[in-house]
Specification:
By secondary structure, the chain is mainly α. The protein is built from four helices and no strands.
């Protein structure tokens, strides 16, 4: 039996790709906004710095809770990825909203 057979790492492939895609879209829109090519709020530079700490602390807390509950490694990773994906999705939706 393979030593990592019980980890079910395939369970985190789709959520990881979703986080990657959401984050990449947010980075692209923010960089375009900084260059004046995409409409962003005047507080976007401040927001993109200040949101990192709380988002990472939430992800770490969720992963820690999952680890202390005795969950598998893939479940712990998923617990950390899920809140980060939510933050990235919220940012993408906010940044992609039509502004007039």
């Amino acid at each position: 039996m393979h030593p990592l057979a019980h980890l079910h790492l395939t369970n985190i492939i789709a959520p990881s790709l979703e986080l990657f895609a959401e984050a990449q879209m947010v980075v692209t829109m923010r960089l375009a906004g900084l260059a004046g090519l995409w409409p962003v709020g005047t507080d976007e530079t401040h927001r993109m710095i200040t949101e990192k700490g709380p988002a990472l602390m939430t992800a770490a807390a969720e992963a820690g809770t999952a680890a202390l509950a005795g969950q598998r490694v893939d479940e712990i990773l998923l617990a950390a990825i899920t809140p980060l994906t939510g933050v990235a999705r919220d940012n993408r939706l906010r940044l992609s909203a039509t502004r007039t």
